[in-house]
Amino acid sequence: MSSLHKITTKYSHFHMRKGKPFLQTIEFRWFFYFCYCYNCSGGILVKYGYVRVSSITQNVDRQLDELKKMGLNSDAIFIDRQSGKDFNRTNYQLLKSILKKDDLLIVKSIDRLGRNYKMIIEEWTDITKNLEANILVLDMPLLDTRIEGHNLVGKFISDIVLQILSFVAQTERENIKLRQAEGIRLAREKGVHLGRPRYKLPQNFNEIAFRFQNNEINNLEAAKILNMTRPTFLKYAKIFSEGHHSLYYQNEIN
């Protein structure tokens, strides 16, 4: 089996790109062939870029411009147009599958990897510890795991910064939940209605509900008279039948 056929087979499950078979593009075949050869031989360091936006309507140009300033060409940049809720993204997984020791993954900002910091840390660890590749985050120079003359403690500092970011993000999420709960409590104490707008009952609701309760009309007829849907009428008719006969006077109900 030829090397080109091997790499084609290896990456065949990543089969769709822009509505056509991913591996039909000859440029990508040769690009992956190149990566395959160097992965097998422990060859030169390769730099890759990763770009993510949450939907197909969002623009990737700003991220692409930053990556190209780092000397990357389009063939070395992987783009996903998917949510960052998890890492089950086609081109991200493809990129990880060809990363090798000492390769460099470049992203513009840490949130391009994902939204969940716990999962980001797990992926970060997998890439830097298990795959032994490096990561550079352009918007945060401290997140640079390369160990070079100007960056002797890159991995150590990056791990600490990432843990701090994770702690801050988790703390902020908890604070947001506390502030929301406190705001809801204060609003309820002040009698502020929360949730959907109150439903305003027709003024003749009690009369019609009473007739329905006495089997003078059925629920379909009652709903039609009141210009209500059948499920809505039945909902409030049940409240009426349970003894809440003040609905007519309140005229509004949750």
Number of domains: 3
Stretches where pLDDT is under 50 for at least 5 consecutive residues are: 1-16, 248-254
Annotation field: number of helices: 10
Major sheet: order of its strands?
Answer: 4-3-5-6
CATH hierarchy: architecture of the largest domain: 3-Layer(aba) Sandwich
Q: Determine the N-to-C terminus distance.
A: 71 Å
Mean pLDDT: 78
Shape: elongated
Largest sheet, in brief, is: 4 strands, parallel
The percent range for helix content is 40-55%
The CATH first-level class of the largest domain comes to: Alpha Beta
What is the strand content?
Answer: 5-15%
By CATH, the superfamily of the largest domain comes out as Resolvase, N-terminal catalytic domain
Q: What would you call the structural class?
A: alpha/beta
Number of E-state strands: 8
CATH fold topology of the largest domain: Rossmann fold
- Kindly provide the radius of gyration, computed on alpha-carbon positions and rounded to a whole number of angstroms: 30 Å
| SSE sequence, one letter per element | HEEHEHEHEHEHEHHHHE
